[in-house]
Amino acid sequence: MPAPASRLPGVTFTFGVLLAASAATRAEETPVPLAPIAPLAVDRETGSRPNSNRVDPVRPARLSAAERDRLYSQVQRDAELLERQSAQLRRLTQLIRPTVVHIDTKKPALRPKNGKVSEDEAGSGVITEVAGRMVVITNRHVINRADLDNITIRLDDGRELNPRRLWSDASTDIAVMEIEAEDLEPARLAEKDPVQIGDSVLAVGSPFGLSHSVTLGIVSAKGRRDLELGEEGVRFQDFIQTDAAINPGNSGGPLVNLRGEVVGLNTAIASNSGGSEGIGFAIPVSMVMFVTRQLVETGTVSRAYLGVTLDRTFTQRTAQRLGMVRTVGARVSGVTKGSPADTAGLVPDDVIIEFDGTPIEDDDHLVSLVSVTPTDRTVSLVVFRNRERLTLQMPVASREQFEK
Fold first, then answer.
1. DSSP state of 22
2. Which residues are catalytic?
3. pLDDT in tens, the chain (404 residues)
């Protein structure tokens, strides 16, 4: 029985039957000798044929052979420029991949279901050196509630490690794990926060468990501070927004500039589908390292404290009452007695418009800046009071001294 070639509902076609019928038909026919058809000469420039009155109406819109050759030359020159840019990305990838790790964790389930008392989670991390120790920086939510033995760190070369110790900070969702192994490659960190909106960046991590994946995008925005993240929330926020593809599993991986320097720690996405929709968020490197250094050196994070209550609903109407053209800065609605703000002379209705040389956008911005300010220094405040700018000096105290 011949095999079917294709099928339609109720109809079967087979090659064998068609071939047999064709052979029978050819046997009954007398072969007619055929001569080859000589091709007509065609002018490659004009597309016309000698002794022919027929015209190709589309021909004028098509490229001639000479035009195509010229265009190929132009394309080749342009491609060389793009290839140099691609070569830069390839070099960056070669530098970055060994500094990035894949993290697998097994942790107790928050809501045990159907007898399942544990859950698996995957994430990413970046290797760096802090206070003479090799550590992996990642997000706290990746490793939270997991024992050290249930955290597996996989290097780019395939080696697997367990962390020696672990520190974390719930207020920023940052975690640090000390590791020990030969030939570890620490990442280079950018100084402060040099990225600007529009800068090109790479996101590296393990989206959906696909380790050491690299995506390219730009910095879409800075200073995102009102995100609702997880059940515990993240108290101190100052996120970089990027359209570089970030998916579940990218958490804890680095956001890198075109110089190969880490500028952020990928943390969250805004998504209706659960996957990348071009809106990802990374913790800026200044906040990452402020927390990391303190965790490694002291085991805790000490933050500055002002001692003010801020107006969360600072409106245009209130700004106009205070003599301001627009709503900017952070309005003080109360001052804690004996606090640094009280010592500096702040009073209700002062509007803090600069903190340590940085213009203040709103109350969340001020809180973010204070959260990464060391506690052993004096900072300068510029406030708007009685329709004038006033500069105050404030010695910074530790938040732990007042919040117990």
1. H
2. 141, 173, 251
3. 444 444 434 433 333 333 333 444 444 455 556 555 555 555 555 555 555 566 666 566 678 889 999 999 999 999 998 898 899 999 999 999 999 999 999 999 888 877 788 899 999 999 999 999 999 999 999 999 999 999 999 999 999 999 999 999 999 999 999 999 999 999 999 987 789 999 999 999 999 989 999 999 999 999 999 888 876 778 999 999 999 999 999 999 999 999 999 999 999 998 888 888 889 999 999 999 999 999 999 999 999 999 999 999 999 999 999 999 999 999 999 999 999 999 999 999 999 999 999 999 999 999 999 999 988 889 999 999 999 999 999 998 887 777 66
Instruction: Give the whole-angstrom CA distance, residue 403 versus residue 14.
Output: 84
Residue 32 half-sphere exposure toward CB, CA atoms < 13 A: 4
Assign 81 to helix, strand or coil: helix
What letter represents residue 59's amino acid?
R
- Cβ contact 383:389 at 8 Å: yes
Distance CA 156, CA 183 (A): 11
Q: Report the greatest alpha carbon distance in the chain.
A: 116
Query: What is the chain's percent helix, strand, coil content, to nearest 5?
Result: 25, 35, 40
- Cα(318)–Cα(346) distance, integer angstroms: 18
Please report where in the chains the tokens 């010695």 appear, as a residue: 395
Domains plus CATH for the chain?
188-298 (2.40.10.10), 304-401 (2.30.42.10)
Least Cα distance to 267 among 311, 285, 147, 354 occurs for: 285
CA–CA distance, 215 with 126 (Å, rounded to integer): 16
Residue the block writes with tokens 């098509």: 62
User: Which DSSP string corresponds to 155-198?
Assistant: -TTS-EE--SEEEEETTTTEEEEE---SS--PPEE-SS----TT
pTM: 0.79
Contact 364, 314 (CB under 8 A): no
